[in-house]
Amino acid sequence: MRFVHAIEGLSLWTGRAFGWCILILTLSVSYEVFVRYVLNSPTVWAFDMMIQMYGALFLMCGAYALAQDTHVRADVVYRLFPVRVQAGLDFLLYFLFFFPGIIALVWYGYEIASDSWRYKEVSFNSPASIQIYFFKSLIPLAGGLLAVQGIAELVRCVMAMRTGVWPERLADVKETEDLLSEADLEAIEAISPNNR
Description:
By secondary structure, the protein is mainly alpha-helical. It is built from 8 helices and no strands.
């Protein structure tokens, strides 16, 4: 588990670090709205900067989402299976779909990033000609982080197939929906007739 938690720790750290993009985005959008509509003096850089921040957030938080098991999953039938079947299915699907997609992301992302660096690419949508080759470097980096987290997920699947129990994940923030569900269960248990 130390190996899995080390990889999860890297994914959590990366997700938290790039999560600050949300604050930068909020401040920059607020600034742009103020100068555009109140001062009638829009910026030439805000649009491109916002696109790059959104892209960085989306790319670099993928491994975080995978480490926290918060990615979108069609689990209508999946959740009814025993843990060993779930783990075996996940293991198979990682090899059939996840890793081929991630390999393509790293491979072609590297080509895109290296071409962008070679040409010192700038945004063609912006009068400010903002450089975007730094941003394009995040594409293969995000793929690499997802690949490493995918390896941790495979180890997690093997452990679940052997024991019949999913190993614990490193805890981080919880979604409001989950917190409310836990609070509802605690409230129901507190007022149930068996507890009186």
